[in-house]
Specification:
The protein is of the alpha+beta class. The protein is built from two helices and ten strands, in the order αβββββββββαβ. A hairpin with a 2-residue loop joins strand 3 and strand 4.
């Protein structure tokens, strides 16, 4: 008795492999798109939490010691000076014994950044708080600062305006497109707390 054995033809194999390839490419593209959305959400959340913590830390200091707010000259690496003008700006904010500025970490030492061109692809800049030479890192490794300026207004009630330029850090293996999409320029004003004596 003779059995009939049928095989796939070459055309049928090519068609089936083509259909399978289209399905696999579609699934991979959906997976890649959802992974990018997830990464973007994580980056955005991390940056917002970091900014919130930084602003709250500085705001608490300014509210407690508003009359002791000082700034250094723009780009200067010197100590803070009590501004004689009603309005002044600088790259370092001093509130009583705390100073806030950008720094980079080199050989386990914090080096104050005077020129923001130093905050480039190879060097990550952090916002730090220096209290009697005890350094606390305020920004985490997900955030890379590109600029920071403090503006102080003395017109009855002391106010400090923070101008921050930041982006996700490329040290965390974030795609360049996501870094570019999540660059932020943030400006917010903090004022000292006023107490009524009645």
């Amino acid at each position: 008795m003779k059995k009939n054995i049928t095989w796939f033809t070459l055309i049928e194999l090519i068609v089936s492999i083509s259909i399978l390839s289209v399905i696999m490419i579609s699934v991979f593209m959906i997976f890649a798109f959802s992974a990018d959305l997830n990464n973007k959400a994580d980056i955005s959340r991390s940056m917002q939490e970091n900014i919130k913590n930084i602003v709250e830390t500085i705001a608490e200091d300014v509210r407690k010691q508003g009359n002791l707010v000082q700034v250094s000259t723009p780009g200067g690496l010197g100590n803070c000076k009590n501004p004689e003008k009603a309005y002044s700006s600088g790259t370092t904010l001093c509130v009583w014994n705390n100073s806030y500025y950008l720094a980079k970490l080199e050989a386990d030492q914090w080096i104050k950044v005077g020129n923001y061109q130093d905050c480039n692809i190879e060097t990550q800049c952090f916002l730090i708080k220096n209290t009697w030479n005890v350094v606390t890192q305020l920004s985490n490794s997900w955030v890379d600062f590109k600029g920071l300026v403090f503006y102080v207004a003395r017109d009855g009630m002391n106010k400090v305006t923070l101008h921050l330029e930041l982006q996700p850090s490329n040290k965390k293996w974030v795609k360049y497109d996501l870094i570019k999409e999540n660059r932020m320029i943030l400006q917010t004003t903090l004022s000292e707390r006023l107490y009524n004596d009645y």
